[in-house]
Amino acid sequence: MSEVAKLELNGTVYELPVFTGSENEKAxxxxxxxxxxxxxxxxxxxxxxxxxxxxxxxxxxEKGILRYRxxxxxxxxxxxxxxxxxxxxxxxxxxxxxxxxNFHNSITKHTLVHEDMKQFFEAYPAQxxxxxxxxxxxxxxxxxxxxxxxxNRGYEAIDLTIHRLLAKLPTLxxxxxxxxxxxxxxxxxxxxxxxxxxxxxxxGMPTEEYTPDPVVVDALNKLLILHAxxxxxxxxxxxxxxxxxxxxxxxxxxxGVSALWGPLHGGAxxxxxxxxxxxxxxxxxxxxxxxxAKDKNDAFRLMxxxxxxxxxxxxxxxxxxxxxxxxxxxxxxxxxxxDIAKQLEKVALEDEYFVQRGLYPNVDFYSGIIYRALGxxxxxxxxxxxxxxLPGWIAQWKEMVENGEPIGRPRQVYTxxxxxxxxxxxxxx
Length: 429
Ligand code: CMC
Fold this sequence. Notes:
Pathway: Carbohydrate metabolism; tricarboxylic acid cycle; isocitrate from oxaloacetate: step 1/2. Belongs to the citrate synthase family. It is a single chain. The chain is mainly alpha-helical. It folds into three domains: 4-50, Rubrerythrin, domain 2 (Single Sheet); 73-264 and 379-403, Orthogonal Bundle (Citrate Synthase, domain 1); 267-374, CATH 1.10.230.10. It contains 18 helices and six strands. The chain has helices at residues 33-37, 73-79, 82-91, 97-108, 117-123, 130-144, 155-181, 194-203, 214-226, 234-243, 249-261, 268-281, 286-294, 315-331, 336-349, 352-356, 363-373, 381-402, and strands at residues 4-9, 12-20, 26-28, 57-60, 65-68, 71-72. The chain has a three-stranded antiparallel sheet with strand order 1-2-3. Strands 4-5-6 form a three-stranded antiparallel sheet. The longest helix is centred in the middle third of the chain and has 27 residues, at 155-181. The chain starts with a strand and ends in a 27-residue tail after the last helix. Residues 45, 230, 233, 264-266, 268, 293, 301-308, 357, 359, 362-364 line the site of carboxymethyl coenzyme *A (CMC).
């Protein structure tokens, strides 16, 4: 017998079907609730609300499990390439060798951006935040491919947009960095792998040959994989909801970039390094900062701590912490910020406040330390997150379109003024 939930309202009992996911996750299906009862549910921040069912990413926050299409994140981070993971997320299965080759070849064909876009960069002030530039540039791509704005385009046209986005995001990201440095932009090199090509565009100069360190390439590959998807987070939900209005994929991804920018989401990686630097400059009194984070009259939070879903530990943070040690060791870098981060983690995890609330280091706590070691400037950290998250956003958008999901349009409970008559200006008190 299928499971049902019973809701009693004003003496009437309503039966609500229970939906069960493939990992035995349970949800009460309220699709007909308003039609049958006149009531809606209220859940600010969607803490208990499933906006969709999805076959892309599974995570269990209590057990610290994260899997893309069933594959554990630990195995993917250890063994896969970012391109393989992108394919897996977007198309549902790990690619065969020829499928991966075709995918990669197609992407490399689209790495250039239109020459006219260079002028956009020139118009930004040198101190412009690269996330602001990235969001605008991704949306601007739609203006170069007007056919992508047709909501009834076929699968082939959608695939072309997907490949263009994967190809051009690294180019645009590197161009925003070069613009900030007032250095000449580097054209992509199509014989390079995805990560190598990005590093070449970031750190190469027209005056001399640049060969990235394999340690740096491997670390970047791992970081991109770890960030590639995280089910219905703020930016993925944004992409799905914008896309549900049939806005084109470029516009939907640009909205995702903007959502990611906030310090409570992807912007935390920049905020963590800024916080650790401040703690160091302030003399390194960790207890003082932990106490500040606990003080409810102080808006300060320990950046890189806590997660909406992980209340035990974030499996990505575990992998990144180890990778940070490895990368710094291999590159022969001694970063005092890493020591402060480790000590802060220890102090916080022994503190009752953090233990009670299940506040553990999240993916962003150690990622900035690796980015620093790779030579990526702090303001570019969230752009790096966006590069990694792109296949996830695309997969989420594609699933939403293929499932024919309705336009996202939450309801509200109105708490404002009741009906009243317009007051002429002269009579207003
Ligand atoms: N420092 C101090 N207190 C915290 C922190 C923190 N970093 N995070 C949560 N709390 C407290 C919060 O004040 C609340 O306390 P109380 O129960 O006494 O009111 C309790 O823990 C629950 O917090 P919440 O804000 O209700 O939890 P949430 O699920 O709405 O927020 C979060 C999750 C990630 C926004 C939050 O933990 C936070 O602001 N963390 C710092 C920013 C950060 O590192 N963000 C990156 C998230 S991981 C990357 C990604 O995927 O986006």
